[in-house]
């Protein structure tokens, strides 16, 4: 596979991205992980609630990273989480999110001097989500089923309306039962279609510019042509509105505007 062809002696991990909410072919990825003794880190920022072969993504192994940014499936205002089933790595992540500090008396390297004592055992970060944000996230989780149902209804309507138009839509593999975060179409004359839709007050966007084409990475020496498929897709991508509070009237209006913009 293309993934396996990219592995070198320096490879430590595979990071599959569940773009738009669709889950990657994880069976093959985990086979490669085992063969080369790597770690799989699933980027699940878009795929909260999505299933892979009727299993939750976190039940399959590796690590899963989640985003609760305001535009994601649920939100904590800002923040994220990591889920995993490795006790040792879990304990290390707890330290890394809090400046490398531990108050676990059983893990101290030096003598415990008293109840006030703690140890900074490695260089960490200030990556703690607040209790207030977590309370919001818990309340949002209770609404996930409703959010997922409405997103699926809108995706079904879009798919039906766009199937005979000169656009490409993101298809769902048989193994995936996705909660779609994005609804993307690929069109010719992207700039023209994008501008027309913005002019009709449709909040379209493009997800995403290939990261290595941005100035920071260009200055590090990355050049156009590194990922030709991503670049080719980027040149035609448009994301159209998809969120659970969309009314049927708004969905109909978006469809009407897309059809008008494509003429």
How far is the first residue's CA from the last residue's CA?
A: 39 Å
Q: Strands of the largest sheet, in order across it?
A: 1-2-5-6
Radius of gyration: 22 Å
Q: Judging from the principal axes of the Cα atoms, what is the shape?
A: globular
Q: How confident overall, as mean pLDDT? A: 95
The number of helices is 9
Notes on the structure:
The protein has 263 residues and is α+β, with helices and mostly antiparallel strands. It is 35% helix and 14% strand. It has 9 helices and 12 strands. It has a 4-stranded mixed β-sheet with strand order 1-2-5-6, covered by helices on one side. The two termini are 39 Å apart.
Helix and strand layout, with pairings?
Layout: H1 2-5, E1 13-14, H2 26-36, E2 39-43, E3 51-52, E4 55-56, E5 63-67, E6 80-83, H3 87-96, E7 101-102, E8 119-120, H4 131-141, H5 144-162, E9 168-169, E10 176-177, E11 183-186, H6 190-199, H7 215-219, H8 228-234, E12 237-240, H9 248-262
Parallel strand pairs: 1-2, 2-5
Antiparallel strand pairs: 3-4, 3-10, 5-6, 7-8, 9-11, 11-12
Helix pairs in contact: 5-9, 6-9
Structure at a glance:
The chain is of the alpha+beta class. The chain contains nine helices and twelve strands. It is 35% helix and 14% strand.
Using brief descriptors, characterize the structure shown.
three-stranded antiparallel beta sheet; alpha+beta; single chain; 14% strand; 9 helices; 35% helix; 263 residues; four-stranded mixed beta sheet; globular
